[in-house]
Amino acid sequence: MKPAHYVNGVFSTSGAAFPLRSPVDGNQMGVVPEATRETVDEAVNAAGAALAGAWGRTDVGERCALLRRIADGVEARFEEFVDAEVADTGKPRELAATVDIPRAIGNFRAYADLAYGRPERAYPTTVPGWSGSGQALNYTVRRPLGVVAVISPWNLPLLLLTWKVAPALAAGNAVVAKPSEETPSTATLLAEVIDAAGLPPGAFNLVHGHGANAAGEYLTSHPGVDAIAFTGASATGAAIMRNAADHVTPVSFELGGKNPALVFADADLAEAVEGTARSTFTHSGQICLCTERVYVQRPVYEEFVQALAERARAQRDYGPMISAEHRDKVLSYYRLAREEGATVVAGGGVPRFGDERDGGFYVEPTVLTGLPESARTVREEIFGPVCHVAPFDEEDEAVRLANDSPYGLAATVWTTDLSRAHRVAPRVEAGIVWVNCWNLRDLRTPFGGVKASGIGREGGEYSLDFFSEPVNVCVKI
Ligand code: NAD
């Protein structure tokens, strides 16, 4: 499978090509075409034309039927999608086969159901003293925003791309998507499936390339783009927002995190250790929801640290960092942690496997302790398989520590005290709080972050709200 642009219903590999490297062994797997400004222009224009044509005349029932056909199309090529996601990211096959690709299929089915079942609102209005009946009917319909730019990251490439593309199409928008330059393959397969499903040309377009001063920036600063849905780093979000400001383009942002876990002494400790190991080390920590700060109540602190370190050392069959650059970034934090005075309880280096993976971009699952809250290692997002564990004494202190962060995406609370769970969860400054679990998802629920972790919410009706504009019609009776 060769990564290709898909613009106005046509596949092409125009533009200069850049290499695609395997994170598993560092070898070049292929090349990716870099979209020029002209290609991005063409895609935005094609999207606009689709809205003015057949796509703009579809009703929600037709669009939802198309979404279901896309879901079926991905399912029919399931193994190909899994292979492509594993090749691009190096993630364990099981993860791609149980999370990434099934969730991508689920995204199309969920938004087909949600969009089709969504009622519109009506407000019968009485205005005493008006001429005639003194009555009116207000009803509110939702109109698509228009041409939507979707920019997605490399960590869950197809899952996060479809998480935006599905509701955007369901709501009647035309899409120009740009996946991460690191992971172009499943997006290209998706374009093939969408093409086969019979979407009118231009309703969905795909361009490949880099972000800054390249395809990503051309797209997000394009005057023909009516809205931007972005998932990625907070600094990138800020750069996109600056460009979006020129045209007052609405944005939906899912950004970085430095997610805390609060472990109370009354928690089921085995469960808390297991859950924290999962939330720290899954996909080698390269999920925005992963835990990087753990606060443990003092009576169980030592036991917890040792048990988590044990779990870190026992990690097998884990994937690499996405790129040499990202591996170097994570390792620079391992070094910084030592300079800042951390105790490295487990990991802290580069594993040796004695096979081709030694040429890949692996780092060890790592547990740190002993840093002050002001340490950069405790404040900045690392996006690797690493957490810092610190003790606390009181419930209020735990909440204060959790909230002492520029980020606010997700948090986990481990306790068997029901009242405490309900007391603490709403006080944590985060968009998502899990109690005695992690990453348990219901696609209808709001998903997103506060502070530097994002703007707006995705999921269920929240996505459909972002991707459409309410229009109120008032009819005098
Ligand atoms: P990134 O911000 O470097 O890149 C994301 C996308 O933005 C890529 O497609 C990239 O090409 C594009 N891009 C980069 N600069 C751009 C610019 N100036 N203009 C337009 N587009 C640009 O992020 P990444 O390294 O791919 O992903 C990791 C980051 O994403 C982490 O910070 C992580 O927390 C975050 N993330 C957040 C969520 C969430 O739901 N909140 C989910 C996954 C990842």
TrEMBL record:
An example molecular function term from Gene Ontology annotations: aminomuconate-semialdehyde dehydrogenase activity
SUPFAM superfamilies with a match to the protein in the record: ALDH-like (SSF53720)
Domain Aldehyde dehydrogenase, which positions?
Answer: 16-470
The protein's superkingdom reads: Bacteria
**Pfam families this protein is in?**
Aldedh
- Per the UniProt record, which EC number(s) apply here? 1.2.1.32, 1.2.1.85
The record's listing under CDD domains reads: ALDH_F8_HMSADH
Read off the Gene3D superfamilies from this record: Aldehyde Dehydrogenase, Chain A, domain 1, Aldehyde Dehydrogenase, Chain A, domain 2
Q: Which residues form the active site?
A: 254
Q: Which keywords label this protein?
A: NAD, Oxidoreductase
| InterPro entries hit by this protein | Ald_DH/histidinol_DH, Ald_DH_C, Ald_DH_CS_CYS, Ald_DH_CS_GLU, Ald_DH_N, Aldehyde_DH_dom, OHmuconic_semiald_DH
Q: Which family does it belong to?
A: Belongs to the aldehyde dehydrogenase family.
Q: What is this protein called?
A: Aminomuconate-semialdehyde/2-hydroxymuconate-6-semialdehyde dehydrogenase
Q: Which organism is it from?
A: Streptosporangium becharense
Upper taxonomic classification of the species? Bacteria, Bacillati, Actinomycetota, Actinomycetes, Streptosporangiales
